[in-house]
Design brief:
Blueprint: E1 2-6, E2 19-25, H1 32-40, H2 44-50, E3 61-65, E4 74-81, H3 88-102, E5 109-113, H4 120-133, E6 151-155, H5 159-180, H6 188-202, E7 205-209, H7 211-216, H8 220-226, E8 234-241, E9 249-259, H9 268-271, H10 279-293, E10 299-309, E11 321-323, E12 329-331, H11 339-352, E13 357-362, H12 366-372, E14 377-381, H13 384-397, E15 401-403, E16 421-422, H14 431-440, E17 448-452, E18 458-459, E19 469-470, H15 475-483
Parallel strand pairs: 1-6, 2-4, 2-5, 5-6, 9-10, 9-13, 12-16, 13-17, 14-15
Antiparallel strand pairs: 3-4, 7-8, 8-10, 11-12, 14-17, 18-19
The structure holds ligand BES, manganese (II) ion and zinc ion.
Manganese (II) ion binds near residues 261, 336 and 338.
């Protein structure tokens, strides 16, 4: 998709394109573009407001055809709520909501006049939102619901910020696509191939470990999870070097391409969306792609552990004791707590690269969704200043993220009688935290933040600004994070 900056912000009424999108505040003041449309049409928008046909409440959509004085045949008004509370996240969502509305049929060019604020992040938020809102989850439908426009124009001043938004939006769509692919198509080997392709296109180094290599590396914890599946496991290591000789930041992702629960089998209703259990891995790949596209002046290592959690005859059993790559022994008391088993070894491989800091992303626990709901990701850390940097980046990006505690007492819950640790807590209380405590056992002294994205990674129903299915969450946060010096 072509994405271009439209530097003449005053051209909203005269621009030759198939549709223009403008924002509407809820407090009766107009944005500059809305004012121009109103003026050109001798008060069409004022009339709508007077008759309460439009109110400007958040993400309300009003489509106007053949507005007098406006060259584009279609004008979309999108509610932006209270002007004083409008930030990059509002603008992102408004652009995505309008793009969703316009993408119901194929169009040539669509112009978004939404970034009225002076800030660079608003312009990139518009570009990213427009790109994400134009792509759906209907990969296997004959008649598609979404048709991306041929060209997106973003009114703004900065070619660079629009290019940034394009890189972010495309990375989000990459992550969403990988997650939305059904498990018959997206399994460890096919994900690894996709990673190799992305790496090649992006000029990133990519190494893939197969089963034999994982055996040689003694990745006993990851291998135990994949044992129940016909599909062989993979571990992918991506390396982007945009910095000098400073140590890298490591991004680690859970890549369970399907989570049946293993012998601790999930019931149908919990299993239907478990293709989403590789969202952490997809996010890592997407962020690596964006970092390379944006030529960020940093060094990055991305590591993803790819397995399918199944119930084959060779599946790990309850009571099994595994030896992780680090040498720690793990008693398996629930085969559905497989993500931590995979990450234990991937985090240990990450340490070989001596990263200065780590972020891992995982659809790790239902308990995190119980604690925080479906919109908010959980953050867990062994280093408050690194965690603060991640939380601040999420705030700038407008993605809900909330830190949960890591008090030492929680570690008692994962002590085992037969092995060093066990893979579930005692009982289900604090399950998101005991899972994070388990991961902490494998990061040594390295500053580390764990993001549990089980809630926001996959929408079971659409939002005004997003289709159902994979959300692409945390891509914007991580790009924000990596753009700022540590
Ligand atoms: N992949 C699931 C967690 C999950 C739940 C992701 C809902 C997305 C939506 C994970 O592997 C899992 O099954 N966790 C168990 C852990 C328990 C057995 C200790 C859970 O949350 O029930
Ligand atoms: Mn599971
Ligand atoms: Zn899982």
């Amino acid at each position: 998709m072509k994405v271009e900056v439209q530097t003449d912000r005053r051209s909203v009424a005269s621009l030759a394109c198939d549709a223009v999108v403008v924002g509407l505040w809820s407090d009766e003041t107009f944005t500059e573009s809305t004012r121009q449309i109103d003026e050109a049409s001798h008060g069409i928008i004022r009339g709508l407001l007077e008759r309460k046909e439009a109110t400007g409440k958040l993400f309300e959509l009003t489509t106007l055809h053949s507005v007098p004085g406006v060259r584009a045949p279609l004008v979309v008004l999108v509610g932006m709520g209270d002007a004083a509370r409008c930030d990059a996240s509002t603008v992102y969502r408004a652009a995505a909501a309008a793009a969703r509305c316009l993408s119901t049929k194929a169009r040539g060019s669509v112009a978004f006049f939404l970034a009225e604020g002076p800030t660079i992040d608003q312009e990139s938020a518009v570009a990213a939102g427009a790109i994400v809102g134009s792509a759906g989850q209907d990969l296997y439908r004959k008649e598609k619901k979404r048709h991306a426009p041929g060209k997106i124009l973003v009114a703004g001043d900065q070619v660079k910020s629009v290019a940034r938004g394009k890189a972010i939006g495309e990375a989000m769509n990459l992550a969403r696509h990988l997650v939305n692919e059904p498990p018959h198509a997206m399994y460890p080997e096919s994900f690894a191939l996709a990673a190799q392709r992305v790496a090649e296109e992006s000029g990133i180094a990519c190494e893939v470990w197969d089963g034999a290599r994982l055996e040689r590396e003694r990745c006993g914890s990851l291998l135990a999870v994949s044992q129940g599946s016909e599909r062989p496991p993979r571990l992918v290591i991506l390396e982007y070097r945009g910095g000098k000789n400073e140590p890298a930041t490591a991004l680690v992702g859970k890549g369970v391409t399907f989570d049946s629960g293993g012998l601790s089998l999930k019931p149908t209703d919990s299993m239907t969306t478990m293709k989403c259990d590789m969202a952490g891995a997809a996010t890592v790949l997407a962020v690596m792609q964006a970092a390379a596209k944006l030529k960020l002046p940093i060094n990055l290592i991305g590591l993803v552990g790819l397995v399918e959690n199944m119930t084959g005859g060779a599946a790990m059993k309850l009571g099994d004791v595994l030896t992780a790559r680090s040498g720690k022994t793990i008693e398996v008391l629930n085969t559905d707590a497989e993500g931590r088993l995979v990450l234990a070894d991937v985090l240990n491989v990450a340490l070989d690269h001596k990263p200065a800091r780590i972020v891992d992303l995982a659809t790790l626990t239902g308990a995190c969704v119980v604690a925080l709901g479906t919109e908010t990701a959980g953050a867990f850390s062994n280093d408050q200043s690194w965690c603060d940097a991640v939380l601040a980046a999420a705030r700038r990006a407008g993605e809900p993220l909330w830190q949960l505690p890591m008090f030492p007492e929680y570690s008692e819950h994962i002590r085992s009688e037969i092995a060093d640790i066990k893979n579930t807590g005692d009982g289900r209380w604090g399950g998101a935290i005991t899972a994070a405590k388990f991961l902490e056992e494998f990061v040594g002294e390295t500053p580390w933040v764990h993001l549990d994205i089980a809630g926001p990674a996959f929408y079971d129903k659409p939002r005004p600004w997003a289709d159902g299915g994979a959300s692409g969450c945390m891509v914007r946060t991580l790009v924000e994070l990596l753009e700022q010096p540590f």
